[in-house]
Amino acid sequence: MKEIIVYEMSFKGEIECRDELPCIPFQKVYWKEYMQKYNACFCEMRRDLEIEPVDFYSGYSQMESKADHTYLYLKNGVIAGGVSCYGNEVDDLFVDKPFQRQGLGRKLLLWGMKHIREQGHQEVVLHAAEWNQSAVRLYLDVGFTIRKRERVR
Predict the structure, then answer these.
(1) Number of domains comprising the chain
(2) Owning domain of residue 72
(3) CB 82 within 8 A of CB 93
(4) What string of DSSP letters covers 14-61?
(5) Is the overall model pTM greater than 0.70, yes or no?
(6) In the predicted model, what is the mean pLDDT of residues 71-77?
(7) Mean pLDDT value across residues 58-71
(8) Using CA atoms, how far apart are residues 61 and 58, in angstroms rounded to an integer?
(9) Any bridge partners for residue 146, and if so which?
């Protein structure tokens, strides 16, 4: 079984958000598309790290408790990306493959951070797998700091 290292990261600075995305709250009508795109974005990491099941989502019951905390960015009527905000934590940030490498991940991250601040939280936290170095670099570039490195398996 492969080792899994996760970084707990923290942000306490000023949020520099120039181009705000028009994110919308998750709606059940988007469930099948969301499930397919979320699974596709995380399957390579889950496969490489031997996390089962490779496709995390398989039924809407897994989403019911998360739906009220999940936001989507649509481009031309399709999900381009999503982000979840639980209390002061950014989670489940993804960008659909055709929309990657266009700055959308940064914009979704900043949107989530701003949303968390609007809920009254000063500190924003997130967790990132060491495996996902492009995400870790993004979070560091935005101003997050690593406050803990933990071996979870």
Answers:
(1) 1
(2) 5-151
(3) yes
(4) -----S----EE--GGGHHHHHHHHHHHHHHHHHHTT-SSSS---SGG
(5) yes
(6) 97
(7) 97
(8) 9
(9) 9
